[in-house]
Specification:
Elements: H1 2-25, E1 48-54, E2 64-66, E3 71-73, E4 79-82, E5 91-94, E6 109-111, E7 121-123, E8 131-137, H2 154-172, E9 177-182, H3 197-205, E10 212-215, H4 239-251, E11 256-260, E12 263-267, E13 271-273, E14 284-286, H5 290-301, E15 308-312, H6 325-333, E16 338-342, E17 349-351, E18 358-361, E19 382-389, E20 392-400, E21 412-416, E22 420-422, E23 427-429, E24 439-445, E25 453-458, E26 461-465, E27 467-468, E28 484-485, H7 495-504, E29 521-526, E30 533-538, E31 544-547, E32 550-551
Parallel strand pairs: 1-7, 8-9, 9-10, 12-15, 15-16, 16-18, 21-32, 23-28
Antiparallel strand pairs: 1-4, 2-3, 2-5, 5-6, 8-19, 11-12, 13-14, 17-18, 19-20, 21-24, 22-23, 24-29, 25-26, 25-30, 27-29, 30-31
Helix pairs in contact: 2-3
Length: about 575
């Protein structure tokens, strides 16, 4: 009996060695394995199978593998197998585990082919990074051609302004750095099955000195003209799949995940195409298809509840009620510590829902569509940097990309409350006149939210804290050149920024596109009309940002917010 047990144990070990040897033979020495059809599908049933190995020759167990519809995990030998979803599948891909290096050149996905069964992956092992920096960049929204009176294409400006600025900030970090582009990478150029801006902007993104993932935005859909309406076809069973193909062909899977430290990042397309037919700007909503939701369920089922989940999407979740949005929120709330990173709105906003889901909406890299170097809410064209420590966000800050606004200390702007701002096309009078008792000041804290404290000093002496304004505002769908408009008292939009875009750049003179909401405007009422005002804005992490530059001439716009325009 003892002899038989020893023999069985020896056979078991030999069998394991044979399996591992076979796995190693299927892997190349210097990169991902060479996939092929050297074997039939397992049991004649599966259409995707393979092995995931570390570069030290050991199997990678528990790694998630997906075709975009099904999520499985590798076994103790690093093997996986599942039946792929058929014609709708574009890629077989893995979810980077926390102990695997994320490379700048994406190595986590492979093109799916109907006659290929084996998809192997090799991971580079590294220590788990409990501390790292994460750059959130929303809405580059680039044209690959000049528009209007602009002297350079948006893609060129992204390459010359954004990339060097981000690389300079990366160079200052002492932590490993990763990034996410939160959708609207392009500006809906092209027709039917192409979007020429996508490969150009992808090449520019590759010049950023860190791995950068991307999610799909509404403008990353291909533009479908009247003569080539969107509809299902032989290669895709859903119009949502048809609409995303041009993006997929350049950037890879639209729904994927990866781990860093004790944080699970889930990156998803939440732009739901509503109906067949020609492209229309309102033919989408924020939501998920049933297949996307089911994919998320599977991914999170295989994620420990102890991990922090960060959902990265384009359209804000908190303000959307499209298909499966409520169900997604419930899934995220089943984790103790989850947050959403989004873009789309071209303003900076933090949504705090108590014990439930917190969401950070990020201002746009392109600002107000590249017509200036500021957003419609007054923020610089910029991005947000997060410092993670285990599951916690220990620090975060917003930073601009252009000279004059590209330092961490530049976090606020102060306006005299009764100035007139704008230019030859329209002017706007700030809605806080001196009322006989108080002289008002408006304070735009770019990354501010209710957790911030804005301390005010008069003549260098602490005088109190400013009041965060409620969100309200006015828009003017049509303006008359040279006319001055007076928003109602109490509106909190940044009329200095709106005045520049509408009154100087002549944008939004016949629409409300440039009247962006502001969720981070404070007000201070001073009884001393002659007092010199300065502030210290204190963020939730305890960082203090001073500002003593008060704008008293709203029509003297500084050069650092302007872009060259052809005459």
């Amino acid at each position: 009996m003892i002899y038989m047990k020893k023999l069985y144990a020896q056979c078991k070990v030999m069998l394991s060695l044979v399996i591992m040897a076979g796995a190693l033979l299927s892997c190349e020495k210097d990169g991902p394995s060479k996939d092929g059809n050297d074997q039939e599908p397992l049991n004649g049933e599966y259409s995707a199978q393979g092995v995931v190995m570390y570069d030290d020759g050991k199997p990678a167990a528990g790694v998630k593998v997906s075709d975009g519809f099904t999520v499985v995990q590798t076994d103790e030998n690093g093997q996986y197998a599942f039946k792929a979803a058929g014609k709708d599948v574009r890629y077989i891909y893995i979810s980077y585990p926390a102990d695997a290096r994320i490379t700048k050149t994406p190595g986590y996905y492979k093109k799916f082919k109907a006659d290929r069964y084996v998809y192997d992956f090799k991971l580079i092992r590294q220590p788990v990074e409990k501390q790292f920096a994460f750059f959130a960049m929303a809405d580059p929204q680039t044209h690959n051609k000049k528009r209007g009176s602009q002297t350079s294409a948006d893609t060129d400006r992204f390459a010359s302004e954004t990339v060097p600025a981000i690389n300079a900030e990366i160079a200052k970090q002492t932590l490993p750095c990763y990034g996410i582009c939160l959708g609207d990478i392009s500006y809906s150029e092209g027709s039917r099955d192409s979007n020429p801006a996508l490969p150009v902007i992808k090449d520019h993104i590759s010049k950023i000195n860190m791995p950068v993932f991307s999610v799909m935005g509404n403008h990353d859909y291909t533009y479908y003209a009247d003569d080539a309406p969107i509809s299902t076809n032989a290669a895709s069973s859903s119009i949502n799949l048809v609409a995303q193909r041009a993006y997929e062909d350049v950037f890879g899977p639209v729904n994927f995940s990866f781990d860093r430290g004790n944080v699970h990042f889930v990156c998803m397309k939440d732009v739901y195409y509503k109906s067949e037919g020609k492209w229309a700007w309102n033919n989408y909503t924020g939501g998920f298809t049933d297949a996307e939701y089911n994919w998320l369920v599977q991914d999170l089922e295989k994620t420990p509840k102890s991990m922090k989940v960060v959902l990265c999407v384009h359209i804000p979740v908190a303000t959307s009620n499209g298909p499966k949005m409520a169900e997604v929120k419930n899934l995220l709330n089943s984790f103790d510590d989850s947050v959403v990173f989004s873009g789309h709105t071209h303003y900076q906003r933090t949504i705090l829902n108590g014990s439930e889901l917190t969401e950070q909406i990020h201002a746009a890299i392109c600002g107000q569509w590249w017509w200036s170097k500021i957003e419609g809410d007054g923020c610089p064209n910029g991005y947000t940097v997060y410092h993670f420590d285990d599951k916690q966000i220990k620090d975060s800050y917003f930073i601009g990309v252009n000279d004059g606004m590209n330092t961490r200390n530049y976090q606020a702007r102060i306006y005299k409350g009764d100035i007139t701002t704008g230019g030859q096309y329209a002017r706007f009078k700030m809605p806080y006149d001196y009322d006989g008792t108080y002289s008002y000041y408006l304070i735009n804290v770019f990354n501010g939210d209710p957790r911030w404290t804005v301390k005010v000093y008069e003549n260098g002496v602490y005088a109190g804290t400013a009041t965060l304004l409620n969100v309200t505002g006015e828009s003017y769908p049509s303006v008359t050149a040279g006319k001055t408009y007076s928003p109602a008292f109490g509106t909190n939009k940044d009329w200095w920024a709106i005045g520049y875009h509408v009154g100087v750049c002549k944008r939004g003179t016949t629409s409300t596109s440039y009247y962006t909401m502001n969720y981070h405007m404070w007000c201070w009422a001073s009884k001393d009309k002659t007092a010199k005002i300065s502030i210290e804005a204190v963020d939730p992490h305890g960082n203090t940002y001073p500002c003593d530059d008060v704008i008293t001439n709203g029509e003297a716009y500084p050069d650092y917010i302007k872009v060259p325009l052809a005459i």
